[in-house]
Amino acid sequence: MSALNLDDFAQLIERPDAGVRRDAEERRARLAVPPGALGRLDELGEWLAAVQERVPVRPIEQPRVLLFAGDHGVARLGVSARPAGGTADLVRAVLDGASPAAVLARGAGVPVRVVDMAVDCDPAQLPEEVTRHRVRRGSGRIDVEDALTAQEAEAAFRAGTAIADEEADAGCDLVVLGDLSVGGTTAAGALIAALCGTDASVVTGRGGRPIDDLAWMRKCAAIRDALRRARPVLGDQLELLATVGGADLTAMTGFLLQSAVRKMPVILDGVVSAACALVAQRVAFRAPDWWVAGQASGEPAQAKALDRIALNPLLDHGVTAGEGTGALLALPLVRAAAALAAELPERDTSAGPVHR
Predict the structure, then answer these.
(1) Which of 91, 217, 229, 302 could form a disulfide with 271 if both were Cys (CB 3.0 to 4.6 A apart)?
(2) Residue 356's pLDDT is what?
(3) Please, which residues have CB within 8 angstroms of residue 119's CB and are 6 or more apart in sequence?
């Protein structure tokens, strides 16, 4: 295996085509619907034109929901409303079609792929296509130990890039990205606090299932302790992920970067995908141009990360379920923008001016 050099992504990732975006803006000005009448749908349509490199835009025909799964050792401190090691139950609910994300994806006709990177269960309990990329059984307790070894971090990152290639090669034209984890928001908070240079209390939220005040204080203390370990390695993003991230977050970061290389757009979900996006931005500053933020989750760390990346969430409905749900709710909006940009007719100017 050749050495992994994240600096290569800064060279490989290009911005979406600015010339095509200007063409899309000019076409929009010629449509019968007045400029501004469609609000952010116009902006989304122009973004899609730039990432697809074509005007008019193609409809979104092969979207895919992708959920990276992993347990986090820090959950043993009681920082989550879910029991430590409970990610396997979340995975089974998705596979059984019983989770909110599974219900929404089924209604939208979008396939769901779950990738087990560090679920704390016997791999035989889950399908082989789910577990084949697993790096380890649960990530380390980030307040006192590294989440991953250097070798595990590289393996997880490479798995994420390989999955991006698989999806792009299969014709996927939009990814709805989310996570299945217990303790993942704590790791995400540590990453965001480290990269934004802020204190633990500023980024500590109450999670998808709101925690009580005592659990919030435990979570804040865990992020504070993880921050002490993260600050010395801020210059190396892969080492940062190994120190206070986890296998699922590391794979998601690799996935986001390689998706940008492959010009495959992504809808981000909640605080975990926002944390990975922030790490990826540190690696390649052009990468965020290939993503949109689906929904504001209410987590302070997500808001801080998206502000730093300069992404404005499409929706804010107070949905805290996580697991890709917020990004899935935004999918119809993106599809609508594509359809309107592709199908609305231009004004008929052949008759010339009307004389009275």
Answers:
(1) 302
(2) 41
(3) 69, 70, 71, 87, 88, 91, 126, 131, 134, 137, 138
pLDDT higher than 60, residue 44: yes
Nearest to 119 by CA among 176, 161, 179: 179
Cα 260 from Cα 289, distance rounded (Å)? 8
Q: How far apart are CA 187 and CA 59, in angstroms?
A: 36
Closest CA to 178 of 256, 257, 120: 256
Spatial separation of the C-alpha atoms in residues 350 and 348, rounded to whole Å: 6
What does each C-alpha distance from 259 to 14, 37, 181, 244 come to in angstroms?
A: 11, 32, 22, 23
Q: Which of 129, 323, 343, 346 is catalytic?
A: 323
User: What DSSP string describes 191-216?
Assistant: HHHHHHT--HHHH---TTTT--HHHH
Give CA–CA dist 302/58, Å, rounded: 31
Instruction: Tell me if residue 323 is catalytic.
Output: yes
Q: How far is CA 97 from the centre of its chain?
A: 21
**Rg (Cα) of the chain, in Å, rounded?**
21
